Amino acid sequence: MDHSHMDHGGMGHGDMGHGGGGGGGGMDDMCNMNMLFTWDTNNLCIVFKQWHVRGPVSLIFSLLGVVLICAGYEALRDFIRRYEASAARRADGLPRHRQVSVEKRSHVVKAALYAVQTFYAFMIMLLFMTYNGWVMVAVAVGAFAGYLVFGKSTCATKETACH
């Protein structure tokens, strides 16, 4: 059955780079969604269609943004490690009956920080899954810079498998 005459504008195909309405900029302004490794930056969208690389300047700023995002992840990990050490020190100096309540509150905060860290790690995975070599290199550079600045007191092995 031939469906070429049907209007697919309301089906969301424009968001996926298949052509058609929705973007307002025509075929040349659509996000390019690669599922294979590439160095091509033509119509590269990074995670969101609004983060659209349209030229060399936006590519450079985008790659710097990716580096900062990935370095920020290492800063978050360092903050969490320092919070855990501080919470343990606080609890150690208290009588046992107060120590339990402080540990419970601390555990809730650590759970929230763990959720933020997990979300952050998966967002970085999505950056990597652009399959764009430039973005992948920026992720690695950001991890390097972040570890260089914030990872002084930790070993280099990772606990998280997704990032």
UniProtKB/TrEMBL annotation:
The keyword Heme does not apply. Its main location: membrane. InterPro entries: Cop_transporter (IPR007274). It comes from the Eukaryota. It is a multi-pass membrane protein. Pfam families: Ctr. The keyword NAD does not apply. It is found in: Membrane. The chain crosses the membrane at residues 57-76, 108-128, 134-150. Keywords: Copper, Copper transport, Ion transport, Membrane, Transmembrane, Transmembrane helix, Transport. Belongs to the copper transporter (Ctr) (TC 1.A.56) family. SLC31A subfamily. This is Copper transport protein. It comes from Apiospora marii.
